[in-house]
Amino acid sequence: MTTTKDKRAVSARPLPLNQILAGDCIEIMNSLPEGSVDLIFADPPYNLQLKGDLHRPDNSKVDAVDDHWDQFSNFAVYDKFTRDWLAAARRLLKPNGAIWVIGSYHNIFRVGAELQNQGYWIMNDVIWRKSNPMPNFRGKRLTNAHETMIWASKSEDSKYTFNYEALKSLNEGVQMRSDWVIPICNGGERLKDAQGDKAHPTQKPEALLHRVLVGTTNPGDVVLDPFFGTGTTGAVAKMLGRDFIGIEREEAYREVAEKRLSRIRKFDSEAIATIKPKRAEPRVPFGQVIERGMLRPGEELYSIGNRHKAKVRADGSLIGNDVKGSIHQVGAALEGAPSCNGWTYWHYRREGKMIPIDILRQQIRAEMEVDETRPH
Amino acid sequence: MTTTKDKRAVSARPLPLNQILAGDCIEIMNSLPEGSVDLIFADPPYNLQLKGDLHRPDNSKVDAVDDHWDQFSNFAVYDKFTRDWLAAARRLLKPNGAIWVIGSYHNIFRVGAELQNQGYWIMNDVIWRKSNPMPNFRGKRLTNAHETMIWASKSEDSKYTFNYEALKSLNEGVQMRSDWVIPICNGGERLKDAQGDKAHPTQKPEALLHRVLVGTTNPGDVVLDPFFGTGTTGAVAKMLGRDFIGIEREEAYREVAEKRLSRIRKFDSEAIATIKPKRAEPRVPFGQVIERGMLRPGEELYSIGNRHKAKVRADGSLIGNDVKGSIHQVGAALEGAPSCNGWTYWHYRREGKMIPIDILRQQIRAEMEVDETRPH
DNA sequence: CTCGGCTCTGAATCGCTAC
DNA sequence: GGTAGCGATTCAGAGCCGA
Lengths: 376, 376
Fold this sequence. Notes:
Chains A, B: Belongs to the N(4)/N(6)-methyltransferase family. 2 copies of one chain form a homodimer. By secondary structure, chain A is an alpha/beta fold. Helix content of chain A is 32%, strand content 20%.
């Protein structure tokens, strides 16, 4: 949807394309020509506010994000920083340009509110659901298994770029949703320094940027990343035939990114089309049967052969003959067996008939299947 | 984790429990006794940018010439509303109380920022991932397939309630994540009015509230919902043996909710009880193991992996490799770890087998239970 | 070669209680 | 109220090693 109007808005002064600029992103953005960029992808500091050390149950220490660039003395300081870089970014965008910002609950609400205050127009918030997040080691909170991205255009009137069909195709023919299941960046993709340690604490997976750039830019567009880090945005932009501008303050990150980019080759278009996303697996915990009201807490289940019974509890556990635990554990205990498939072992009664609870799981799975495959 | 301190904070003035109060939620909350509520679940108007009116305590109307200005003025009104109801809610919470707020990208960033500004402390943002969302018919954006909930305690110091084991149990033994897959409310659960139309535009599924209440309240807790609507919060609270207070301005919704609640029955107490954490079990000093002759002074203990050993002393301390102290201290010292659970770390030998000393603690605990139940 | 077991690690606002 | 000490707590995936 990029228009000729946007193209004319480009200043006569040449843009420093496909380079990494060294320095403070606000100053550098303010030095670049107004209205010259199609898309901004920004991964600003999250302002994590970590306190002491954290250890895993095996006593190993978690290598936390304690870098100086993530330290802000209070919300006011962080808010000013956010206000300034978002304003500089907005000035740089073409009238039909758009921005993506990624963050966690520590900062994303402040970023989102400021985006709205400045007149950006939010199209979607998008959830990156991590298939392999770090667990909560102390059992004090829910596993923090996602990050939030906000996708917004420069203004309400912007004719933003949205490649609906491309995303649908990436999603096996089904309309792309606002929650994306993508693994965290590790293995061979994760960049290491000379000592073999991770080169950057928060390197983003290329799969994430792939989806962002395929969905909301066109070949030849200019993509700017003001917090370039190790250059995932630049790498994916280069593969996909987009131009990038990176800004990064830390020399160590710039060096890693330069080296990375030098090895990247642009895909041919066929290769791009064949990349498929990883899909979520339909594991169904028994608790969902309770939450959805398919069985009520207090209801009784009966074993195969009707020799044992147990009562369902609100947390999805069973209690029967003084044994408490999962449907599998209680089944195994009552049978004196080392293991038991609770789904086929337990039955509930409806109109005098005994029905295996696995039927309920199948119903839930069917709903999930319909949802994942039905063309809208 | 609710403490007696919270219980004492309850005012002498009786709370209007298990009722729906009619009127403006801010006024009503301000009329209730301070520090009297364990949990608040709030589903405030998402509003914004939609033409329909929200509370507009009104500003003089400016001719909408400048979009940006107009937008700001709308946000300002919404922000004031948010500030006021969140402040009233915070006053009502016990020191260890907590709040859940649900919203979409239209309002959640403003709500989240204001929560932080007021001193609430965010534990998680939780994604309700809808398994059956409404598709985006025009193909101009991603399918908006989720809503965002924020879970926050009254302050950073709050000892908030988190039933880790119950949620883990609901998820079949795996730690609960911050993304919850739950279908939208439809079918038989969706309340209809006399004409057969949906009674409320945004009725939340009971499954969502089930998980919230099982995870972050205890039986007997007071749960307040300032935007009660058709009363999903009250319905699930009643089923789970929690007390509720509902506030709702619209008479039509109150009527539907009253009728709904009158049909709800509480689950039996045994079903409501959930798996308890080990922390809740009585503490057993290691010295008791010696006193009871389960281990003899001079006997040797062996570490996990058999790399270290230590000798038991008569006072219940260990000595190994010149280190003396508790089972925990010696374990930590020998491993060079910051801490160590001596109960699971140390093993004793019986008939050639290595047995963790935790077995002995479990025996003592079992005896204590018998003691407690026997008439004195 | 495969397979199984062991190790390592990832944007983390990650105690409680008794003295 | 401050502090010392007990003792609870993890999931997925990649890589490596030995059988």
